[in-house]
C-alpha cells in the first residue's frame, strides 16, 4: 500500500514557542495535524490565564494563516501554578482553554515556576473537575535520580483519582513500563500521551555511543523493556493512549553545548515515522490502528469532535 488516507490527526502535546521560532516550526505541524494542544511553558512569560491564552492563540492562529492554513485549530492550555485560582480556571474554561498543565517545579525546560505540591492545589483541581477542564501532568518527581523520576511520580495519581473521581487526567509523554501499567489500571478518567520518539529511542540512543543531544528530552528515553511496553500500549489500540508528539524545538546552539536543553523536535517527521511504525508492527489492520492512535482516541478523551479533514500519506 503506497498511499493511505486517514482522518486528520491531532497532536495533543506540542511546543510552538513564539515569534520567529514559532514561524519557523509551526508549518511542520500544520502540514499533518488539524489541531494541536499548545504547551504553555513559554519564556519569559508562560501562559497562565485567560488573557495569556487568548493572546497566544491569536499569535498561533495568525502564524497559521500566514503559512496558508487558516483552518488549523490551536487547542489551548494554561500552566497551573501555586497561584492559580479556582475562579481563573472557570474563566479560562469559558474562553475555550481545554487543559491546565502541571510541571513539578524545575523538572524540565521552563518549569521553574512549577507546582510544589498538587495537594496544595486541591481547590483549583476541584474547579477543574467541576467545569470539565483536563489536568495535564508532566509526570516526573523532582529531586529523584533521573531514570526513576517518572516511576516515583505515579503514586500521586492514586490520590488524584480518589479525591477527584471525575477529573480527566492526562499523564504526558510516558516513558516507562510502570506508567503504562498504572494508566491501564486506573479508571477511564486517566489517559496518557505517547510521543513518536519514545517508540523508537532508548537511553542508548542518547548516551550509549557518542552523546546525541538531539535525542535528549524529558522524561529521558529509558530501557528496551520500557520502549516495548510503550509499543504494546500503542499497538494494542487501547483508547487510553493517544498521540502527543512533545515536539520541542530549540536553537541548535542550545542543544549542542555544555548544558543542552531537553526536547526533541519531531514535528516534521512524526506522522511518517508513526505510519512506518504501524506498518512494521501492527499487522494488516495497521492503517486503522494508526488512525485511532493519532486521530480518534485523543479527540474522544478531550470530548472534541473528530477532525473533518483528511490526511493522505504517500510512500516515496
Ligand atoms: Zn512537553
Describe what you observe in this structure.
This protein is 40% helix and 15% strand. The protein has 316 residues and is an alpha/beta fold. It starts with a strand and ends with a strand. Helix 1 packs across helix 2 (50-66). It has helices at 19-30, 50-66, 86-94, 122-131, 149-153, 155-163, 177-185, 197-200, 204-208, 224-236, 252-255, 270-281, 286-302, and strands at residues 3-7, 10-14, 35-38, 73-79, 97-102, 134-137, 169-171, 190-194, 241-243, 310-314.
Topology summary:
Layout: E1 3-7, E2 10-14, H1 19-30, E3 35-38, H2 50-66, E4 73-79, H3 86-94, E5 97-102, H4 122-131, E6 134-137, H5 149-153, H6 155-163, E7 169-171, H7 177-185, E8 190-194, H8 197-200, H9 204-208, H10 224-236, E9 241-243, H11 252-255, H12 270-281, H13 286-302, E10 310-314
Parallel strand pairs: 2-3, 3-4, 4-5, 5-6, 6-7, 7-8, 8-9
Antiparallel strand pairs: 1-10
The structure holds zinc ion.
Zinc ion binds next to loops.
Give the rounded overall mean pLDDT: 96
- Kindly name the structural category: alpha/beta
- Strand fraction equals 5-15%
Bound molecules: zinc ion
Q: Could you state the order of secondary-structure elements as H and E?
A: EEHEHEHEHEHHEHEHHHEHHHE
Helix proportion: 25-40%
Show unreliable segments: none
**What shape does the CA trace take?**
globular
Amino acid at each position: 500500500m503506497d498511499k493511505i488516507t486517514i482522518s486528520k490527526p491531532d497532536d495533543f502535546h506540542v511546543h510552538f514557542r513564539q515569534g520567529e521560532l514559532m514561524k519557523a516550526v509551526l508549518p511542520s505541524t500544520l502540514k499533518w495535524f488539524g489541531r494541536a494542544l499548545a504547551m504553555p511553558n513559554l519564556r519569559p512569560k508562560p501562559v497562565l490565564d485567560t488573557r495569556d491564552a487568548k493572546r497566544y492563540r491569536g499569535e498561533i492562529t495568525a502564524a497559521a494563516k500566514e503559512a496558508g492554513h487558516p483552518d488549523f485549530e490551536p487547542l489551548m492550555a494554561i500552566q497551573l501554578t501555586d497561584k492559580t485560582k479556582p475562579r481563573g480556571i472557570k474563566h479560562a474554561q469559558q474562553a475555550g482553554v481545554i487543559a491546565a498543565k502541571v510541571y513539578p517545579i524545575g523538572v524540565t525546560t521552563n518549569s521553574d515556576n512549577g507546582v510544589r505540591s498538587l495537594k496544595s492545589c486541591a481547590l483549583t483541581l476541584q474547579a477543574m473537575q467541576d467545569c470539565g477542564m483536563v489536568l495535564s501532568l508532566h509526570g516526573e518527581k523532582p529531586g529523584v535520580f533521573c531514570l526513576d523520576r517518572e516511576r516515583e511520580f505515579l503514586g500521586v495519581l492514586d490520590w488524584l483519582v480518589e479525591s477527584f473521581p471525575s477529573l480527566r487526567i492526562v499523564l504526558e509523554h510516558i516513558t516507562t513500563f510502570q506508567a503504562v501499567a498504572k494508566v491501564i489500571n486506573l479508571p477511564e478518567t486517566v489517559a496518557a500521551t505517547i510521543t513518536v520518539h519514545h517508540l523508537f529511542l532508548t537511553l542508548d540512543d542518547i548516551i550509549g555511543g557518542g552523546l546525541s543531544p538531539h535525542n535528549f528530552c524529558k522524561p529521558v528515553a529509558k530501557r528496551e523493556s520500557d520502549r516495548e511496553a510503550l509499543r504494546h500500549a500503542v499497538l494494542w489500540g487501547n483508547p487510553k493512549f493517544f498521540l502527543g508528539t512533545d515536539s520541542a524545538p530549540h536553537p541548535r546552539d542550545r542543544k549542542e553545548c555544555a548544558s543542552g536543553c531537553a526536547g526533541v523536535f519531531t514535528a516534521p517527521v512524526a506522522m511518517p515515522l508513526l505510519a512506518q511504525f504501524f506498518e512494521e508492527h501492527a499487522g494488516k489492520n495497521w492503517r486503522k490502528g494508526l488512525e485511532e492512535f493519532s486521530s480518534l482516541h485523543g479527540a474522544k478523551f478531550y470530548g472534541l469532535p473528530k477532525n473533518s479533514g483528511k490526511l493522505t500519506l504517500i510512500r516515496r
